[in-house]
From TrEMBL:
Its main location: membrane. Residues 123-151 are annotated as: Disordered. The keyword Transmembrane applies. Belongs to the sulfotransferase 1 family. InterPro entries: NST/OST, P-loop_NTPase, Sulfotransferase_dom. Keywords: Disulfide bond, Glycoprotein, Golgi apparatus, Membrane, Signal-anchor, Transferase, Transmembrane, Transmembrane helix. 3'-phosphoadenylyl sulfate binds at K164, G165, G166, T167, R168, R245, S253, K370, G371, R372, T373, H374. GO terms for molecular function: [heparan sulfate]-glucosamine 3-sulfotransferase activity. It is a single-pass type II membrane protein. This is Sulfotransferase. Its EC number is 2.8.2.-.
Length: 407
């Protein structure tokens, strides 16, 4: 009697249309949950495709994933870096300048621009190769979120100059410090790419954690008239670092770099003078202009106090790298971690190298574009240049409160 009551009830339960729909919906829900779980697991292995494409929509950039970033975005960055000329030809001088630049000077200026751009590309390519060799596997999107891998910030400190002063060496040395993260290639944002906007600039920066400092270096900022106002507009608290070097040696080094790329340029002597007989220096040549440090510093002091600018000696960076790095670490408010134990002197190149580079256990020296042998220059020309720079050097010593011993 009991069996006959139960069976009909079970049959009625399973045969009910409403119950069938509920069971079917339950099965579909379970399948949907499983598919969602599988999708999340798959997407977490491709963080750049999700995160970077979203950023690309926000900033209008062409970033679509890590693979695209390392190919098309970086090639686009190179083209942007090379798209605008340097503004050095606008710098004023106390000396009379020709109203029309000679053909040789125009050709040389073009050669210098091409040389700088080629060196920018060489540095960027070398940095990319180094990073590919040393970079650990990237974390997934979910693990990055959970472990707090940092975010991209505008730089709090910038190496603003000077060209051929030792800025690349200083940046490579500083990157050993665990609390410093720096972009490898020169962004040239405040001189060539300012129209791209601060968000474009921010995207070039590496991710940093709380307490870490974001840095970049572009030596041409120091001689760019608009750069101080633009950096001040970004942040008045930005700390500025200038690596300076004997302006005569710096000019010869500048010429040597151009000569290595364009061996048919005029001689150093012919470019130095407007008229060799009168001995009048041609200050329209950028290799001469850059070394008039006092005039460029005047422009920066209109926007930044002196205690926000640190001047690093390019000579001491070679003879005592740990001492100069100690000053820089103090200036940045960091613990002195980079010391003598991080360096060894390379006799072949003639300057110090790192025993262990950032992210590597191997010694590291700067590339073949650094430490070129200078051509022989007529001693009379060298002496005339020293006489020309001496009053500017004296003024620079007074402004900075430091005698760099170039005279």
């Amino acid at each position: 009697m009991e069996y006959s009551l139960v069976c009909p009830n079970l049959y009625a339960f399973w045969s009910s249309p409403v119950k069938k729909k509920l069971i079917l919906l339950s099965i579909m829900f379970l399948i949907w949950v499983y598919m969602l779980y599988s999708c999340v697991g798959y997407c977490s292995t491709m963080p750049s495709l999700v995160v970077d494409s979203y950023r690309g929509k926000e900033t209008g950039s062409a970033v679509v994933g890590k693979r695209t970033e390392t190919s098309s975005s970086r090639s686009d960055l190179v083209s942007r870096l090379l798209s605008k000329p340097q503004p050095w030809e606008d710098i004023e001088s106390d000396y009379e300048e020709p109203s029309i630049r000679t053909a040789a000077s125009r050709d040389l200026l073009n050669n210098e621009l091409e040389t700088d751009r080629t060196d920018d590309w060489d540095e960027m390519r070398a940095h990319q190769q180094q990073q590919q060799q040393q970079r650990p596997p990237e974390p997934s999107a979910m693990s990055s979120f959970s472990n707090g891998s940092g975010s991209k910030k505008l730089p709090q400190a910038i190496i603003i100059g000077v060209k051929k002063g030792g800025t690349r060496a200083l940046l490579e040395f500083l990157r050993v410090h665990p609390d410093i993260r720096a972009v490898g290639a020169e962004p040239h944002f405040f001189d060539r790419n300012y129209d791209n906007g601060l968000e474009w600039y921010r995207e070039l920066m590496p991710k940093t954690l709380e307490g870490q400092i974001t840095m970049e270096k572009t030596p041409s900022y120091f001689v760019t008239r608009e750069a101080p106002a633009r950096i001040s507009a970004m942040s008045r608290d930005t700390k500025l670092i200038v690596v300076v070097r004997d302006p005569v040696t710096r000019a010869i080094s500048d010429y040597t770099q151009t000569l290595s790329k364009k061996p048919d340029i005029p001689s150093f002597e012919s470019l130095t003078f407007k008229n060799r007989t009168t001995g009048l220096i041609d200050t329209s040549w950028s290799a001469i202009q850059i070394g008039i440090y006092a005039k460029h510093l005047d422009n920066w002091l209109q926007y930044f106090p002196m205690d926000q600018i640190l001047f690093v000696s390019g000579e001491r960076l070679i003879s005592d790298p740990a001492g100069e790095l100690g000053r820089v670490q103090d200036f940045l408010g960091l613990k002195r971690i980079i010391t003598d134990k991080h360096f060894y002197f390379n006799q072949t190149k003639g300057f110090p190298c790192l025993k262990k580079a950032e992210g590597s256990s191997k010694p590291h020296c700067l590339g073949k574009t650094k430490g070129r042998t200078h051509p022989n220059i007529d001693p009379e020309v060298v002496q005339r240049l020293r006489d020309f720079y001496r009053p500017f050097n004296m003024k620079f010593y007074q402004m900075t409160g430091h005698n760099f011993g170039w005279d």
